[in-house]
């Protein structure tokens, strides 16, 4: 990506000066963009490896983000002091090793219970989880195993008001053999769990690769979705006219469905000014 700390400081020009990175920025509210408010805007930290959480939070507050996400508990207070939240906290599960294997439940269940309590204490609304890879397992056995494991942590999630979100990922390019790779499988899992505290993280990039038909799928399954991620297809880069998805129409479908959760930018910037790419993406999605 190539964003340096010096470039980050230049990006912050026009806001009140930072005494140093690591100190909260005092940002003039009238200098922040006035977004329409139908979409709650977030960004995934891992897409900006050259920026610390503190630096990205300062920039995010200036450009009108409401969240920096996929953070661990030690980072949650950092974004909070900039007036932001972490809309999707990291969970203890790993993409290849998730709830579809019973042997993983021994460590997943206690660690998720602890993470749910930590999220509730910090006011974090959602925690991410993964199905795991197939490794020869059929879809029905995977569903049964996920139900068995997830139902052990759902009472804790319900008690503390934290939603566990399983991410839909593509198994064609980025995550070969991943099980929760189609909306229908994920929706079936949500139905079997039967709790408002378990829903899907619908990644638009991943599901365009696996299924297409994004807008209709979102409209028909919005009740099972708690969170969205974006990125351009192909390549997982900017969501502008360089790629095949038309995000204004997708965002209108999400907003018109009455969705109240967050939409997080998860593209990998390629342009000389990655923060301008992020700002442009938010403008595209602000319908």
UniProtKB/TrEMBL annotation:
Q: Which GO terms describe its molecular function?
A: isomerase activity
Q: Which UniProt keywords apply?
A: Isomerase, Pyruvate
List each coiled-coil range: none
Q: Which Pfam families match?
A: AP_endonuc_2
Q: Which Gene3D superfamilies match?
A: Divalent-metal-dependent TIM barrel enzymes
Tagged with keyword Metal-binding: no
Signal sequence segment:
none
InterPro entries reported for this sequence: Sugar_Epim/Isomerase, TAT_signal, Xyl_isomerase-like_sf, Xyl_isomerase-like_TIM-brl
Mind telling me what this protein is named? Answer: Hydroxypyruvate isomerase
